[in-house]
Amino acid sequence: MEHCFRSLLRLSTLVISLIFLLSCFGFTSTEAYDALDPNGNITIRWDIIDWMADGYVAVVTMLNYQQYRHIEEPGWTLGWSWANKEVIWSMLGGQATEQGDCLRFKANIPHCCNKDPTVVDLFPGTPHNRTIPNCCKGGVVSSWAQDSTNAVSSFQVSVGNSGNTNGTVKVPKNFSLNAPGPGYTCGSARIVNPTRFVTPDGRRITQAMMTWNVTCTYSRFLVDKTPTCCVSLSSFYDTIVPCPNCTCGCQNNLTHPENCMNPDSPNLASVVSGGQKSNNLAPLVQCTSHMCPVQVHWHVKLNHNDYWKVNITITNFNYRMNYTQWNLVVQHPAFDNSTQISSFNHKPLNPYTSINDTTMLWGVKFYNDLLMQAGPLGKVESEILFRKNKSNFTSDGSWGFPRTVFFNGDSCTMPPSDAYPFIPNSSIYRNVSLLMLLISLLTTFATHFACVV
Ligand SMILES: *[C@@H]1O[C@H](CO)[C@@H](O)[C@H](O)[C@H]1NC(C)=O
Ligand SMILES: *[C@@H]1O[C@H](CO)[C@@H](O)[C@H](O)[C@H]1NC(C)=O
Ligand SMILES: *[C@@H]1O[C@H](CO)[C@@H](O)[C@H](O)[C@H]1NC(C)=O
Ligand SMILES: *[C@@H]1O[C@H](CO)[C@@H](O)[C@H](O)[C@H]1NC(C)=O
Ligand SMILES: *[C@@H]1O[C@H](CO)[C@@H](O)[C@H](O)[C@H]1NC(C)=O
Ligand SMILES: *[C@@H]1O[C@H](CO)[C@@H](O)[C@H](O)[C@H]1NC(C)=O
Ligand SMILES: *[C@@H]1O[C@H](CO)[C@@H](O)[C@H](O)[C@H]1NC(C)=O
Ligand SMILES: *[C@@H]1O[C@H](CO)[C@@H](O)[C@H](O)[C@H]1NC(C)=O
Ligand SMILES: *[C@@H]1O[C@H](CO)[C@@H](O)[C@H](O)[C@H]1NC(C)=O
Ligand SMILES: *[C@@H]1O[C@H](CO)[C@@H](O)[C@H](O)[C@H]1NC(C)=O
Ligand SMILES: *[C@@H]1O[C@H](CO)[C@@H](O)[C@H](O)[C@H]1NC(C)=O
Ligand SMILES: *[C@@H]1O[C@H](CO)[C@@H](O)[C@H](O)[C@H]1NC(C)=O
Question: Which terms in the GO cellular component ontology are assigned (predicted)?
Answer without folding.
Answer: plasma membrane; side of membrane
